[in-house]
Specification:
Helices cover 34% and strands 21% of the residues. By secondary structure, the protein is of the alpha+beta class.
């Protein structure tokens, strides 16, 4: 079973808009160094999801999705890592 300390929250920005910013909850047991953006950028677009899974991605949300989940009270913007972890547990993505 994963614990909060076994995960990390990474932020990537590919532009200035909310939908250009991504938040990735990563399984540090699989990828202690986190997501390899260089490897990800070279991935075949048809296999993008599987490459993310291989790198330990548990959940990836863009800035608009995070804002919406915060407004609904499902995520806490002040404690995003822990609240994303808890949401993943509630949704069965983490056991």
């Amino acid at each position: 079973m994963l614990t909060l300390k076994d995960t990390g929250l990474e932020e990537f920005s590919f532009g200035d808009d909310s939908d250009d910013k991504f938040y990735v909850l990563v399984n540090k047991k699989i990828s202690p160094e986190g997501i390899d953006v260089d490897k990800l950028s070279k991935a075949d677009p048809m296999k993008f999801d599987s490459v993310l899974n291989e790198m330990g991605c548990i959940l990836m949300l863009n800035g608009i999705e995070v804002a919406e989940l915060c407004m609904r009270g499902d995520l806490d913007n002040e404690n995003l890592h822990e609240s994303m972890f808890e949401l993943c547990k509630e949704e069965g993505l983490i056991r």
